[in-house]
Amino acid sequence: MAMDDRTIIAILFHWAIAILLAPLFVGIISKTKAILAAKVGPSLFQPYYDIVKLFQKGVVYSRTTTWIFRVAPVIVLAVMLVLALMIPFGIVKAPIRFAGDIFLIAYLLGMARFFIIAAALDTGYSMEGMGASREAFFSCLAELALFMNFVTLAFKTKSLSLSSMIGADAPVRWEVFGPSLFLVVISLFIVILAENCRIPVDDPDTHLELTMVHEVMILDHSGPDLAYMLYASAMKLFLFMNILVPIITPIYSHDAVVGVIVFLAMLVGIAVTIGIVESSMARLRLNRVGNLLLIAFVLAFFGFVVALWKTI
After folding, report:
1. CA angle 93, 94, 98 (to 5 degrees)
2. Residue 282 within a domain
């Protein structure tokens, strides 16, 4: 088999994992919240049902919107599909990885956010503009914490490739950088909640437009366009969880079966943890979200200081 054929198969396999598994973990979070609230709750596969139902419906466009509103859902989903090729999934290596790929990943995330915000502003609806403003402000703080974590990981691994930074190519040395990695893990977990608009930053289940961030920006999307947005949101959560998994994975094995079991168990564990967090606390007031993200930055910064101290 030629190298090009193997690369194509690796890309298709990586896409298949992301496309098939991403909505499942949204369902796990919802199911966890329902169980903790002593309710039956929706099925684990409810996100799949919702997306399929949306694809069966038509699309309605406001006369005030332009081409930006129409292409934004496709671009956002396409960006997530490209990002999926640059993030390892357990024992499955990232098909695209090179020195400095972390910068491309950051710019792709920024590109997706730009089109979500632009589409919200394109509607001319004041509530969506308010959500876009909040998204832009919170993302600035979240990216600051995210980059500080990347700086710490890059310093620890002496690499600017994400696969090497998070320990996907070689096990993370917790015995040496344990305290530093612990701070990074906590900081990254807060960033995951913020970047994916989960409680305590945003409530994905709320219907109060004045308190929404992400959900209010996609109110005017319908049919397949809304399905693209929901799928992209689920994939973004899945990809961020996969950044965290290699850092905290306690078992490394060359056995494919063991590797898959550990990979799925860690993903489920993170999803359940998010569900527990969302069930145990309320959404923060909007003027407090900035403080939470600054805490994430401070944790990442002290993680870098501890890593630096360990090398002296």
Report:
1. 120
2. yes
